[in-house]
Amino acid sequence: MKMFTIILTVSIAMTIKTNAQIPNNGFEDWTTDTSGIEIPSGIWVTDNLVEKPSGVTYNAVTKSSDHYPQNVGIYSIRLENNISFVNSNPESPYPYWRLAYGSTATAPLTSHYLGYNGPSFPITGHPTSFRGFYKFLPQNNDTLVIGLVLFKNGSPVASAFLNSTETVSNWTSFNLPISNYTTSDSAQIWLMALKTVPQGNSILYVDNLSFDTLITSVSLTPSELPMKFNLAQNYPNPFNPSTTIEYNIPHSGEVNINIYDIQGKLIKDISEYQDSPGDSKYIWNGKNNFGNQVASGTYFYQIRYGNVIQTKKMILLK
C-alpha cells in the first residue's frame, strides 16, 4: 500500500506602507523662487508660477499649519480656488483660470486641466494602494480630485481616484486600491479642489501621502507560520546608510513601526498598515520624516502589533 502525505501550503503576500517613494509626501519642504512665490519642493508643480495679471498676488497653493495631527510634521498642502479670477476674463481664460485653480501635480500641468501627460517620478515594487489624509470644504458643488496614475515605459497601466463633493471638516483618511496591472516604473499624482472649472472658492487640504507596496510572496506550511509576534535584530548592525528590520506575526493585523533617537525623540514613523501573517521586513534608509539623513549614533526601532510592543537597538555608523 502506498502512503501519501498531503502538505497544505499558505501563500503569503507581504506588504509595507512606505512614503519614501513619494518625494515631499508630507509637504514639509517648501522653496521660494526669485519672485518670492513659495511652492512645494521636489516633484510638485503648481500654478503659482503662472504669469499673473498686474497687481495680482493670489496663490492658489500654499502651505498650512493645519496638518494631520498624528503626523510628526508641521505642515500640509492647502489648495484653494478663486472664482473671481475665472469670471474676470471669460473670453481669455489663460492665465486667469490657471491662476484660479487650487491644483498641484507631480508632473507639468497641461492646458487648464491635469491629464495623462507622462510619468514624473520613479517607483519600485508593486504599489497596491494609495493612502493619505485630507479635508475638503467645497462650495457650489465643487468636486475634489485626488488622483494617481502608474506608468510602465511611459504608458499608463493603472490608476486610482478619489472624487467627492462632500464636506469633510476633520482630517480623514483615504485608501485607494490599485489593481489589474503587472508592473510599473513611475507615477504621477495630482490634487485638485475642483474637477473641471471651479464653481466656488473651495479648499482642499492634503497630508501624509503613501503607498502600500507589495514586497514579495512566499509559501508557508502551517508548521512554518509563527506562533507569536517576534521582532528580529536588524541587519547589518552597525549599518550605513540603510538596514533591514524583520518581524513576523501569527495573524493578520495592524502593525506600526517607529524609530527613535537616543533621547527618545520620534524621528521616523510608518503609520499603521494591515499586514499578513508570516515574515515581513522594512528597510530603513537612515532618513527622518523630513527626508533628511540622520547623524551617526544609537537608535531604537519599535514595532507595535495589537497590544504587544517590542523594541530593539541599532547603530548607524558613518
Q: Mean pLDDT, nearest integer?
A: 77
CATH topology of the largest domain: Jelly Rolls
Please indicate the percent range of residues in DSSP E strands (runs of 2 or more): over 45%
| Unreliable stretches covering 5 or more consecutive residues | 1-16, 110-116, 215-226
Number of helices: 2
| Net shape | globular
Classification by helices and strands: mainly beta
Brief rundown of the structure:
The chain contains two helices and 21 strands. It has 318 residues and is mainly beta. The relative contact order is 0.19.
Polypeptide structure, described:
The protein has two helices and 21 strands. It has two domains: 17-214, BT2081, beta-jelly-roll domain (Jelly Rolls, Sandwich), CATH 2.60.120.890; 221-316, Immunoglobulin-like, CATH 2.60.40. 4% of the residues lie in helices and 47% in strands. By secondary structure, the chain is mostly beta strands. The strands form five sheets. Strands 1, 5, 6, 9, 12 and 14 form a six-stranded antiparallel β-sheet that branches. Strands 4, 7, 8, 10, 11 and 13 form a six-stranded antiparallel β-sheet that branches. The protein has helices at 83-88, 93-100; strands at residues 10-18, 30-32, 38-40, 45-46, 61-64, 76-80, 103-105, 121-122, 126-137, 144-152, 155-164, 168-177, 186-192, 203-220, 230-231, 243-249, 253-261, 266-275, 278-284, 297-305, 308-316. A hairpin with a 2-residue loop joins strand 10 and strand 11 (155-164).
